[in-house]
Amino acid sequence: MSSRVPVGSRRVRTAVVGTGHLGKFHARIHKENPRAELVALVDPDLERARVLAAELDCCACATVDELPAAVEAVSIAAPTVLHEALARPLLERGVHCLVEKPLAANLAEADRLLAAAARGSALLSVGHVERFQPAVRAVKARGFKPRFVECHRLAPFTGRSRDIGVVHDLMIHDLDLVLDLVGSSVRSLDAVGGAILTGQEDVASVRLVFENGARANITASRASLQPTRKLRLFSGEGYASLDFGKNYGLVITPGPEWDSGRVDLATMDAATIAQRQEWIASRVLSLQELDLSSHDRPLQAEIDSFLAAVQSGEEAEVTGEDGRAALELADRIVADIRAQGW
Predict the structure, then answer these.
(1) 152-195: per-residue pLDDT in tens?
(2) What residue numbers bound the domain in which 262 lies?
(3) Which of 27, 113, 140, 298 would be 16's cystine partner, CB 3.0–4.6 Å?
(4) pTM assigned to the model
């Protein structure tokens, strides 16, 4: 049970640390969220912070030490190498932190953040935003227990996040997703990847084998010509195909003639099967496109979930421990890639 004191239904006094590309999104969402009262922005580029602060009607600071004492919760959207230095003093004084992924630059820093949160009785959440994809939430609600997961996350080169490789930059989203969906520890892995445009791996692929027997293939690239963000999930309950870029999801489950239809299919030749595709899709199988139109965007849902946990005193939906687990797995994958010397 949490030892944190909930703030109840009143608005949480918040700040955003970092006003770069991602920090601007955090700041505007804090301003619009009815759970939050945006108090301050922090950025060493004080002029940049002041411009955004003027737009959002809050104050601007150059360092976290200058934050008003009233601030109760912050989003930290700064480079990964700064996460510990920024979040640790805040956590120790009881300020709740949503830290963008990855949680920290290494496991030692991650452990210090977890310890700081415990000392300060502060909530520590990690920005694994894909947990909040409407399609993912819809599939989880169906109770699927995946036996095989396939993920592709490909992006053009942007020049951002060059302090980390593609495993910690992009693949870590899917590592967290798969760990959460499968619900088992990784028994073994086999990874490959290499540098293309930077000094660190820009493309990587890994096969994971879990203790419960599930498997996952995950590929990530930040040197692709076209963006792709897809996840396919196979389970005893059915199959799901999710396209995050298009906010689209298709779920296929056994249809009303599942049992008898499979018996009939075993006796049909290829020509007959080709003529019975509509029957297969509508009777042997049940195809359902997920209705995702009414859901919040993932970052909005993530920040709202964080603020709701601050209000209630409950555990965050994505915990610091979750962030550490994804980081540990990412480190193992990078070590395996580097051992091959590609």
Answers:
(1) 999 999 887 777 899 999 999 999 999 999 999 999 999 999 99
(2) 252-291
(3) 27
(4) 0.91
